[in-house]
């Protein structure tokens, strides 16, 4: 039997491999191989070897894309390099297609790859001659729900806001997601709950997401938290110029939301293309502002930027004063 397990959802990949191994009898002969430098000829030898105890033999090959054609192991480095340039890809596909139907019944051959495998070449052969299982991380729009389910499956609580913040933090780099989730689980293992402040503390994120902690505190009139979050960003090495730019972007969105505050978050989302989470957050924030105040807030921030660029103020101190005045609604 031949099984292929691949994809970029490493959590599910590992769970599936563990599940396969947990079903084996204690005396099962298990061989783990790295595909790098492994030829189809070598693979055939491993798979065709009879199990030591007369039961089942399991051969796990990690990194299918690094396999070599059947005659590569008997060639010199120069010969192999030249052959690889000309024919190794097509030869590998042919060798693999010829051998997989011949894998002995006494052997379970598992191909394990931490990347998606395409539908042509090796991918076509594996889909045809193996039980093919591909586990992929979701697209950006599906990430928040995926994050919540992943944490909840391990016994952690996380609300929709925290899941959205983490999704925005990793942005299009979903390969980072698993390591960030593991970091958060370790940090929050005693309380078994992931809060926004945990994410802001532990996860490296772009300034336009990192400033949410500041703007959320401004919206809720929490000057202490807003200033603390601002100073924390400075300590992490985020430049004041980046911070003011990101805050400006958030407040511009608030001004847009203020212009249609009576129409709700769904209208705001549809009219502007904002993500649902952002539209809901802005609609909620408006309840702490009177009509027209967001525009005054933006004008005040632009004045801070102008004072810095004309040499009349240090940007970090001027920004901190702005944050305090914004929380107090002193426009």
From TrEMBL:
Domain called DNA polymerase III delta N-terminal: residue spans: 5-112
Gene3D superfamilies: 1.10.8.60, 1.20.272.10, P-loop containing nucleotide triphosphate hydrolases
Chain spans, region Disordered: 68-89
Any GO MF annotation of the entry: DNA binding
Domain DNA polymerase III delta subunit-like C-terminal: 211-325
Keywords attached to this entry: DNA replication, DNA-directed DNA polymerase, Nucleotidyltransferase, Transferase
Enzyme class: transferase
One Pfam family linked to the record: DNA_pol3_delta
Origin: domain of life: Bacteria
Record flagged with keyword Transcription: no
Keyword Oxidoreductase set for record: no
Cellular component, GO, one term: DNA polymerase III complex
Record InterPro entries: DNA_pol3_clamp-load_cplx_C, DNA_pol3_delta-like_C, DNA_pol3_delta_N, DNA_polIII_delta, P-loop_NTPase
Record-listed E.C. numbers: 2.7.7.7
Catalytic activity: DNA(n) + a 2'-deoxyribonucleoside 5'-triphosphate = DNA(n+1) + diphosphate
Listed GO biological process terms: DNA-templated DNA replication
PANTHER family assigned to the protein according to its UniProt record, in alphabetical order: DNA POLYMERASE III SUBUNIT DELTA
NCBIfam families found in the cross-reference section: holA
Family stated for the protein in its record: Belongs to the DNA polymerase HolA subunit family.
Protein name per UniProt: DNA polymerase III subunit delta
Classification lineage: Bacteria, Bacillati, Chloroflexota, Chloroflexia, Candidatus Thermobaculales
